[in-house]
Amino acid sequence: MRTVRIVAVGVVIAVLAAGGIIGFQIDSSNRQTDYVVGSDDANRVELDVTLQRVDVTGRELDLRIIPVMHGNLADGFDAVPVRDIEVDTSSLTSGTLRFKAHDRVSLQDVRIGVDDGLVSSYPFDSYSAAIGFYVTAGDQNVPVSLRFRGYDALFTAAATDAEWRSGVLKANVAAGRTFSSLVLAWFLMIAMWALALSVLGAALTIVSKGMGLVWPAMGWMAATLFALVGFRNAAPGSPPIGGLIDYGAFFWAELLTTAALVYVTVHGIRRARLA
């Protein structure tokens, strides 16, 4: 019997470990996807765009852009344009990016406003933004393409619904929580409910058995009350208060724990006064 239990525990551990590895592979593959859209002309400007961060409170996307020259637009190297390059962006803060001919191009940071998505939906919040670029080389329209990838550790991002013509490229950036972020957020919500219900069950047991002031149990309940705050603050991305995670678990867990602690305390005080 003991051998069977040991084998069963080993199998459970192996299954859980395998599930974790599979989840890691899914998460990693989603983060490392490149999206390439636009013209495939041999003489074009390719915009290498990376999503560095999703600013959920400011409702903005932090993008990093670098133009890559191809064909006769490159001065020997794909990072050196043969003509002046101007990239007009849809950003309301950065405007036009300018790169001088025969000078090595450098990374440019651009902030794009989010069109759709609210952090109050956390952990199921997702965001989308329309991005657009108008590229000229020496004041002439040139073919343009886009290579997009996401680097934010908390979000997976994709470039969809792309439209392009000579000099102009538009696309929609969609960003959603990573698989690992969703798993951890779900775990935190379940753990908060489990802790609160455990405290409530202990309180009902103490009162039903007519116990008085059980100080160890009351200390544990009070500690749980503050531990829930730590659980809430451990949510990936530190979402502001008032999200779905709060209305779905945190507020209720705090309420149940507080009510249970007060219930046990009032009951214990009454018994102590009558003794």
What's a concise summary of this model?
With 275 residues, the chain is an alpha+beta fold. It is 40% helix and 30% strand. It has three domains: 32 residues; 145 residues, no CATH class; 94 residues.
What topology emerges from the helices and strands here?
Layout: H1 2-31, E1 35-38, E2 45-55, E3 60-69, E4 85-89, E5 96-99, E6 108-113, E7 126-137, E8 140-141, E9 144-150, E10 155-165, E11 168-177, H2 179-208, H3 215-233, H4 244-274
Parallel strand pairs: 2-9
Antiparallel strand pairs: 1-9, 2-3, 3-6, 4-5, 4-7, 7-8, 7-11, 10-11
Helix pairs in contact: 2-3, 2-4, 3-4
Explain what you see.
Strands 4, 5, 7, 8, 10 and 11 form a six-stranded antiparallel β-sheet that branches. A five-stranded mixed β-sheet has the order 1-9-2-3-6, with no helix packed on it. The protein is elongated, with a radius of gyration of 28 Å. With 275 residues, the chain is of the alpha+beta class. The longest helix is centred in the last third of the chain and has 31 residues, at 244-274. It folds into three domains: 1-32; 33-177, no CATH class; 181-274. It has helices spanning 2-31, 179-208, 215-233, 244-274, and strands at 35-38, 45-55, 60-69, 85-89, 96-99, 108-113, 126-137, 140-141, 144-150, 155-165, 168-177. The mean pLDDT is 87. The protein is built from four helices and eleven strands, in the order αβββββββββββααα. α2 runs antiparallel to α3 (215-233). The relative contact order is 0.13. A hairpin with a 2-residue loop joins β10 and β11.
